[in-house]
Amino acid sequence: MLSRISLLILGSAFFVLAASSAILLYSSIKSTTHLDGQLSAQPGSEGDFIVNVGDRVFFKPKQVELSAAALDTLTRQAAWLKKYTYVRMRISGHTDEQEWYGDISEWKKKREQGIDRQLGLKRAQAVQEALVKWGILRERLEIESWGWEHPVALCDAESCWSQNRRVVLIMCGVKGSPC
Length: 179
Hints:
This protein is globular. The chain has a single domain (about 30-175), classed as CATH 3.30.1330.60. The protein has helices at about 5-30, 45-55, 70-85, 105-115, 115-135, 160-165; strands at about 55-60, 85-95, 140-145, 165-175. The model is unreliable at about 5-30 (pLDDT under 50). The protein has six helices and four strands; from the N terminus they run H-H-E-H-E-H-H-E-H-E. The longest helix is centred in the N-terminal third of the chain and has 26 residues, at about 5-30. The relative contact order is 0.17. By secondary structure, it is of the alpha+beta class.
């Protein structure tokens, strides 16, 4: 018979081994950036997802409907997520400031009401629903909205605004761990 101390030591060793395995698995899926600035595209990594699949879905102004191009990207994303079933994603919805321009008092009112975040959230939900429809477990897909707070392009032109009207899928963890 094993003593209580032996069982405690054995249990602790198992916990450490399991935690180490989860950390190794998660670190292996995170991307690495090479000295030349290029993302690693190791299969199953964040770089693989960004480079070979595409991490962004774009929208028309004030819209949440998925375009043909968006559906094409989502089809590739769903296939990748089916292949790498241990990956969890954060779906981050964004808008651009141009969607809300007009009278400055109206703009401030919409900002205070969180209209930009509501639209970003609806976009993230549209992407989440499409992925769930194609067989990805909802538990693997966390959603959030940033509204216009995190633009990727800054200029006063459609070429920038169109890049900011987006949803981005971000690898945030492995199955069984929080994002």
